[in-house]
Amino acid sequence: MAWIWIAVLLLITFLYLLQQLLNSNKKKKLPPGPRGLPVLGNFHMLGKNPHQDLHQIAKKHGPIMYMRFGYAPTIVVSSPDAAELFLKTYDHVFCSRPLHEASKYIGYEQRNIIFGQYGPYWRNMRKLCTLELLSNLKINQFQSMRRTEVGLLISSLKGASKIGEIVDVSDKIASLNVDITCLMVFGKKYADKDLDEKGFKAMVKETAEVAAVPNLGDYFPYLGVLDLQGLTARMKTVAKVFDDFLEKIIDEHVRNKEDHKQTKDFVDTMMAIMESGDAEFEFDRRHVKAVLLDMFLAGMDTSSTTVEWVLSELIKHPQVMKKLQKELEDVIGLDRMVEESDLDNLEYLNMVIKEALRLHPVAPLLIPHASMEDCVVDGFHIPKASRVIVNIWAIGRDPKVWDEAEKFQPERFLGSDIDLRGRNFQLIPFGSGRRGCPGLQLGLVIIRFLVAQLVHCFDWELPNGMLPSDLNMDEYFGLVTTRAEHLMAIPTYRLHK
């Protein structure tokens, strides 16, 4: 075994020296950045929370920073002005994705929307998904389903409140999101055993982990086949579990396609497009499964994680919780639950959600972009095939933009026209430009509705006499960055009915 590692090290060293020789005559001005180690580059500078490490490094080297991870030249962007250059001014250059081993195996050779490389196929598929799956019309068709499922959660929590039960809020919210996402995407709820013995939440967590862990195959292409970290084996296992599940669902829909459903789920819509032949590009079961898996994974994890962070901040700041409850009482009263039609009248709720997403963006480094050609940005040479990492966690803490940036202060948005939709680069939790999240509107509806309902229907107390100031707010980094610990709390029902 030792000789394999020696051979690998010699190969890497040779390729590194060759790369240095090829680059020795290039005197173009790269962005500033920390010196890296031979072969490894700057990997040694990252710990368990890379977004926080990159934030600290950027304080020394600036908002456009050059780093190298293995053989991958990487640009780290850490300010609103720099983000606007990469995501708006030069969006046409940086709108692709780097090669990604996890998406190769799990995303059907990067046929999905999230990790798909930019080109005619990706443009057409995104347009199709935006029009057919994520339009306001489609979102509104599932409104009664969301009301029913959230109502079931409220009933469950109401039962817990009668006996003073400590509730695993994180688990409750995640389970609700599994049900809502399954109903929208697949047409019905599924039990954990329908997917795998580990269940939905465990498999989604595993997917997020293998997609986020720095993979030698992504940074040292010649080492991918060796699978030295065992990641490829894990990816193949995850891919098979989801592929078998999706095949079963598609087969069910094919057998039952004559059923006259009142609301067509995403599988119905995608299969109808495939069978019609109207897609104007290659479109078979692989493409259907890639998009369905995108919708399922993105829809399930991001919304529930955001709701967790919002509720955590509200519990940690009781005065903000009381102010939001007062708004809900004034607009809705204590005789009924919140309806989605109420959401546009809840100004303080929107400020609370903006502030939580500023401090806790669920994808703190977004998904990496890739440069499709050489480009000069702010006087710096950005080589073709560079990875571009936009650190929106750092942007949300930029002291040049945010006063007392570490504090949770929703009032900072009072009278502000900053929104979440990618136009204001101080706050871009859903990204911006061509690669902005196509599910933004659906995500915001679910987040706003669920937060409003949980806060309106219940007071929340931490267990075992814990003070709000003692609530642990540590992060667990992944493709979606969650709370390190589950949120545990005791609900007390507060409505009159």
TrEMBL record:
UniProt xrefs under Gene3D superfamilies: Cytochrome P450
Signal peptide: 1-19
Membrane-protein topology: Single-pass membrane protein
Keyword DNA-binding part of the UniProt annotation: no
Keyword annotations: Heme, Iron, Membrane, Metal-binding, Monooxygenase, Oxidoreductase, Signal
Cofactor (UniProt): heme
Pfam entry (one): p450
Gene Ontology cellular component annotations, sorted alphabetically: membrane
Localization: Membrane
UniProt key word Methyltransferase: no
Organism superkingdom: Eukaryota
Sites where the protein binds heme: C437
Gene Ontology MF terms: metal ion binding; monooxygenase activity
PANTHER family in alphabetical order: CYTOCHROME P450, CYTOCHROME P450 93A3-LIKE
UniProt similarity note: Belongs to the cytochrome P450 family.
Protein name, UniProt field: Flavonoid 3'-monooxygenase
